[in-house]
């Protein structure tokens, strides 16, 4: 069965996004086999980048067609061989470049002699023999593996590639003058990017900071860490805006749709104990009638709980603040993205979204 390169790339992108999001949540994949983990270490420390790319290509080929002999990456090597060069050119190399992962400039097979097979005899002509031995041991394991093991191996390989990328310095694409239509596409792209909730909070924080700086307000804007406990003393929301000691507004930026239980829990743990009178949920979906009935009861008690569509509010705000306000927004979001604690994955995603709206 010939390899479906488009389907293979789509699967690779899905798996990468899932692994990256898990890493942002502090839940990276693990590898229990100590011997093979040492093999991964050897491959990812090797100066021969092609070893890592070969490994990724072999896993993808085996997932696509279990009958393939991944030791044979040239079609002239028999009925069970496959076209490793085309797989690299159409899937592996573009993927690595799109995701800003350090990789070879040319096809990974160019690091080997022509018509190479991934067998012990090949090591004699290679500079990094130990790295190839480690690669061959994992290829042997992958060749005999079932799909569940292949998926675990793919995810762990992607995790190691992410670590490799994160060790490199990523330069941020700067925001130039954008139209409101371009801002709308940028915001939607960032909100759709798996980020463990970080991009939505970053956008809303940047927007409130822009309001403060544009109008010279004396706001203190505090942001709760994504993984911080919700019951932390003094925390109003994901974003808390203070004037002096008083909370003038608390903002929640939930990842999932807000239901009645979420509103009730927020009221009991945050709003009521701190006497917060103005609480704002930024949402991406309409809230249900049961949620609205609940907040009307809280309104009668003196607590205003409101819901705003995140994308709509940001678009209207950027339009209202005018060109100078948008320039302030651009400056602030770049400053926040440059912070040391910002994950490399978010910087790469930012660069990708900027390229999407400026290259179109």
Q: What do these coordinates show?
A:
It is a single chain. The protein is α/β, with parallel strands linked by helices. It folds into 2 domains: 5-166; 180-358, 3-Layer(aba) Sandwich (Dna-directed Rna Polymerases I, Ii, And Iii 27 Kd Polypeptide, Chain: A, domain 1), CATH 3.40.1340.10. Helices cover 55% and strands 8% of the residues. The chain is built from 12 helices and 5 strands. It has helices at residues 5-24, 34-45, 49-64, 84-98, 129-143, 147-166, 180-192, 198-215, 260-274, 289-300, 310-337, 344-358, and strands spanning 220-223, 239-243, 246-252, 278-283, 304-309. Strands 1-2-3-4-5 form a 5-stranded mixed sheet, sandwiched between helices. The protein is elongated, with a radius of gyration of 25 Å. The two termini are 36 Å apart. Residues 229-233 have low confidence and may be disordered.
Short description:
The protein has 360 residues and is an alpha/beta fold. The chain contains twelve helices and five strands. α3 packs antiparallel against α6 (147-166).
Beta percentage is 5-15%
Instruction: Please mark out the parts with pLDDT under 50 across 5 or more consecutive residues, or reply none.
Output: 229-233
Total number of strands: 5
| Helix percentage range | 55-70%
- Overall form: elongated
Give average pLDDT, whole number. Answer: 90
Secondary-structure arrangement, i.e. CATH architecture of the largest domain: 3-Layer(aba) Sandwich
Order of helices and strands: HHHHHHHHEEEHEHEHH
